[in-house]
Amino acid sequence: MKLDINGSVHDVDATPDMPLLWVIRDVLGLTGTKFGCGMAQCGACTVHLDGQPVRSCITPVSTVGARKVRTIEGISADGSHPVQRAWAEADVVQCGYCQSGQIMTTVALLEQKPEPTDSDIDSALAGNICRCGTYARIRSAVHLAAKLSRGGGK
Amino acid sequence: MSLTRRDLLRTSLAGAAGLVIAFQIPNVVKAAPAAAAPALPPANAFLRIGTDDSVTVLIAHSEMGQGIWTSLAMVIAEELECDWTKIRSEHAPAAPVYASPAFGIQMTGGSSTTWSEFDRYRNVGATAKDMLVRAAAARWKVAPSACHAANGFVVHGKQQLSYGQLAEAAMKLAPPKTVKLKDPKDWKIIGTPVKRLDTPEKITGQAKFGIDVQFPGLRVAVVARPPAFGAKLAKFDGSAALKVPGVEKVVPTANGVAVVAKHFWAAKLGRDALQIDWTPPEGGGVDSGRQIAEFRAMAKTPGTIASERGKVEQALSGAKNKLEAEYDFPYLAHAPMEPLNCTVKLDGDKCEIWTGTQFQTGDQGAAAKILGTKPENVTIHTMFLGGGFGRRANPNSDFVSEAVIVAKAAGVPVKVVWTREDDMRGGYYRPSYVHRIQTAYDDQGKPVAWDHVVVGQSIIAGTPFEPMLVKHGIDGTSVEGLAESPYLEGTNALRVSLHSPRTAVPVLWWRSVGNTHTAFAMESMIDELAHAAGQDPLAYRLGLMKDKPRHHAALSLAAEKAGWSSPPPAGRARGMAVHESFGSIVAQVAEVSVDHGQIRVHAVTCAVDCGTAVNPLAIEAQVQGSVAFGLSAALHGKLTLTNGKLDQSNFHDYQVLRMHEMPRVAVHVIQSKAKMGGIGEPATAPIAPAIANAVFALTKQRLRSLPLRLA
């Protein structure tokens, strides 16, 4: 079947029930998207389908169809996206394993709500677990990213 | 592998762009406490300087989020006087030269990396700088003392040469016998907030964790392990698994069955299709309800004496003011975000391992033993760890040994990937404990007698650390922080005793180890005493700690910054705790409310005395993260067992802290002249008692069972 990932179309050999996560990681070799729970509990596997954040670990590849898949590798390879810049500025990461998912959820949030409140951030990111406990800096970084996206800040 | 100088030179040349400095090794430094090691460390094992001016620091420990790739680079850079923008870090290979100065083996734990490596990495930086300066001086035909190093250059008057330009010449010089380290007042990097070096790869998805290892010919295995602790593999039939598209092999492990496939999904479906008969655990297996009742019964009588002074029974029986309480703690999973995994490639008697481990020396030895080869034939590539928290420092090398067995049996390179359920049900938990305290207090409320019984499995028994860490039947980690509590300095009748029952449930250190329960029991009972005496919890504690200036200062600062002397907002209350662990002191004040019967933590104010603060930005992150980790346990964490089988399996029934539950956490770092302590763990333990004490202030309910639940 054909999959549009980060702007290029790939012909992939996978059974229809195979979760998109494992197609992305094990078939296409894009390892930025992470496996954390396999049941949409932790958000580490978050990718976008036509801009909507989804948990790729429970998304059968056959249901993707023509929708465009965006992974962390498609956000920017050099860290220049406002959300990535904010993450760097706020020194968010610790182990880093959950951060692809946190960033993907945040990018989608800001595309829908350019000026999120703390409560918007709580709702959007409640499904993304970080065991290192970077939540406080994520919150600052989301606000900073909103500012950078509007052309403000540094 | 054991690195010879030639190996190091080759490694260095292969690893950097252009030529590199490879320093001569004066001699192999034995693993010993830094103070007892007069020889300078072999700088080329820790540092490479490329002709392109790049500076690469080899980190002897594992980066699992705690920020040591940055802090150890800062420590080298301080002495090396290099250009910070040219510096990068990478994990060192597994080799004796990288043994921890604190523990004598290559490992990461005990919040020890920065303080234990502080002298070694500074010496490396100073050694390299000395050689670069002498190389420049020789070229200019001036005295080395007339030159100085700054920002990646050696300078003499108006002329300068970059470190990259000097690399080749410097590598030919003999290293200095001694170096003089900078006076702390001249530090330019140490003590300043420095952003992490690993951020660029971690925000773009390019960072490579163990689970991300891929190479041609690599297969993925998913393993069926015993469904209950103590269960044994009886027989299996892999024929249905082999019919799953992508599945290539089914092989037995030590006590399980591995399905080897082209990719994870096929291996997982294959594992689901296995037909396996397991022999149930003897005696029916551990049952949590029964176990806690047994532990409570044991807590009624003294165990093996860990510490004793005076006659505690006599003091208790004659006292008029007494308090008694029991505290209990469940098993906890580490649940790092990256499920366990390990990649193994065998080639004759050589073995290559890629994994996120905190325990290189142990894992190397374990792999060598399975393969019947020498440890130096086992290469370990330490990948980024997607969280460790102690789970990846296993003296039994469980996830590494298993992967070696699977690769050997399968005859192909294999990455064993654990599912979340495998990870959670795989054991090595923070043990379950019961504490019972009987105390008597005088008319001022001061504890005059303290009888403390701890019941819970030993983490250390049965590991190679037993001879070092279990003394006279006492696993020190089970009782750490009790007898030496600053609150009990004036208590003349004291007994701390320990029962260490053995069970089939494997246990392990979990971020801050014994302090996870000892701090709770101690700080809860002290709070009970303060209230029994009718005293303010802060004033009461400060009164007991008047001869402990660091504790006194930390608690006073946290209280001041939290506004302890003014009332909290309506509907909220505050509670406090202070605890010393890993050489550092952390005081916390938590502000809580109760909403529909649920405890909500709004703010946590922390004061930290960790001695020299190398990177305040990292300290803040570690303290915030430790509070979050401790909050997961305080509010949610509980594993239970039925017939030896874990009842929980994933994040839906083993909840951890989420974004909307994260309080504001203010971190105040005390300017301290004390000996440097650790920072990865010490802020974990105080949070649960600080919350419980706040809940008592708000509701008058004294919560003595973890996780904290209101009646």
Which tags fit this structure?
heterodimer; A: 154 residues; alpha+beta; 5-stranded mixed beta sheet; 5 strands; 34% helix; globular; B: 711 residues; 7-stranded mixed beta sheet; 29% helix
Strand content of chain A: 5-15%
Number of helices, where a helix is a run of at least 4 consecutive DSSP H or I residues of chain B:
19
Order of helices and strands of chain A: EEHEEEHHHH
Strand arrangement, major sheet of chain A? 2-1-5-3-4
Q: Can you give the mean pLDDT of chain B?
A: 94
Instruction: Name the largest protein-protein interface in this structure.
Output: A-B, 61 and 62 residues
Portion in beta strands of chain B: 15-25%
Count of helical regions of chain A: 5
- Oligomer designation: heterodimer
Total number of β-strand segments of chain B? 28
Strand segment tally of chain A: 5
Termini Cα gap of chain A: 43 Å
Question: Over all CA atoms, what is the radius of gyration of chain B?
Answer: 27 Å
Q: What is the CA-CA span between the terminal residues of chain B?
A: 57 Å
Mean pLDDT of chain A: 96
Strand count, sense and barrel status of the largest sheet of chain A are: 5 strands, mixed
Description:
The complex is a heterodimer of chains A (154) and B (711). Chain A is 34% helix and 12% strand. Chain A contains 5 helices and 5 strands; from the N terminus they run ββαβββαααα. In chain A, a hairpin with a 2-residue loop joins strand 3 and strand 4 (52-55). In chain A, helix 3 (99-112) crosses helix 4. The radius of gyration of chain A is 15 Å and the shape is globular. Chain A starts with a strand and ends in a 5-residue tail after the last helix. The mean pLDDT of chain A is 96. Chain B is an alpha+beta fold. In chain B, helix 2 runs parallel beside helix 3 (113-140), helix 3 (113-140) crosses helix 4 and helix 18 (616-635) crosses helix 19. At the A-B interface, helix 1, helix 2, helix 3, helix 4 and helix 5 of A face helix 5 and helix 18 of B.
